[in-house]
Design brief:
two-stranded parallel sheet; 41% helix; mainly alpha
Amino acid sequence: METPIGPLLLAATREGLAEVVFHSDGPTTRRALTRLEQLFGAAPLPEIPHLETAATELTAYFAGELRAFTVPLDWSLTSGFNARVLHALAADVPYGSVVGYQDLADRVGEPGAARAVGAAMGSNPLPVVVPCHRVVASDGGIGGFSGGLETKRLLLALEGVLPAPLF
């Protein structure tokens, strides 16, 4: 789907939205679809109901009309520490707010695991919907982002955390 941050590939199972892929041009989309087919053991089907829900909600989010996603999520592409961190992020860091890597580590009972939280954010299969863009550095910087720093800035500006870019 086309969005203000570039094309996104959405993949869902019957359980829920399973993956959001940034910058899904031709080669990126082909790689992602091949990987998903290997992981799930079947070719992707375009008619999964959760895809329509996810697309509708993402459209509303980018229009500034949605602050919390309700599309069911399929968490099968993450596990262990990463899953714990991503669940905490999805549940406890609302639209328009940010959290530090260390604070998120503390919230999941892993003090000193700020770098591991960064790795969990980088492996997030559901960016935007599970808002890894809301995790920032404790020194006031915005930290890293798998979708690119400009994408993170745009998402934080959309949510009112940063000023909107001038151009």
